[in-house]
Amino acid sequence: EPTVRTELMEQIPPIAIFLQESRPNFPTAFFEYLMPIVVRYLTDVNNQVRKAGQEALLILLEQDLVAQSDIENKVCPILLDLSAPDSDDEYKVEAVNIICKMASMLSRTTVEHMLLPRFCELCSDGKLFQVRKICAANFGDICNAVGQEATERLLIPKFFELCSDSVWGMRKACAECFMAVSYTTSPEVRRSKLSPLFISLISDTCRWVRQAAFQSLGPFISTFANPSSAGLYIREDGTLSIRPSAQDVNSSSCQPSSNVTLVSSSANA
């Protein structure tokens, strides 16, 4: 009965937390019994059960309850199978969504070696625009997860493709995450490649794309600032923030830093 399996999935995270706290008494219970169930339910025939399994998996990853070996040997292979070119459309959309959400919770090595090649393939999926849109919407998170070298070598060419996609929703999603992508690149790539690309979005034929690009203009410009002097940095949630410089900290409290106001308005935009 699907409702029973769904209910079971919702109980897995609290049981796993209990086992973690009682590890001396139950050293291998989670890995032997619970983790195989979570992995199996990712391919369940019932949509609701699969969703519950995906949510349980993400909670387990957030709580750092899944061993690195289980991630690489059990979770990643099943997601790669589900997101394969010949996979069922519904399974593929779900798999790419969970791959994108997992990226920020895994080690850089795991993401780059196991998930990044498939993500790059999915960015060019000509069959399902939903798959490309998920990739576009999460592009900044993937860049942040793999770092500058892999971003410039593998992801920037895919970003160019998505920014010129025939579906305007794809281009809009790219405009919205432009700051996060720019922040991961070198100043030279930012200046020579991303600036012209941003101009194309701000001049797009679709007004929704243009509007999203204009809203990202301030944050994009902020990535050109020198972090050591401007104190700009990206939080883990992807928002732009400011870290007071030593000069600001040592200066009088009645001398507010002018760039605080500018950054806060950009972040709000």
UniProtKB/TrEMBL annotation:
Keyword 4Fe-4S on entry: no
Pfam families assigned: HEAT
SUPFAM superfamilies, sorted: ARM repeat
Organism name: Scytalopus superciliaris
Gene3D superfamilies: Leucine-rich Repeat Variant (1.25.10.10)
Alphabetically ordered keywords of this record: Repeat
One of the record's GO cellular component terms: cytoplasm
Protein name as catalogued: PP4R1 phosphatase
Ranges of the HEAT repeats in the UniProt entry: 115-154
Domain of life: Eukaryota
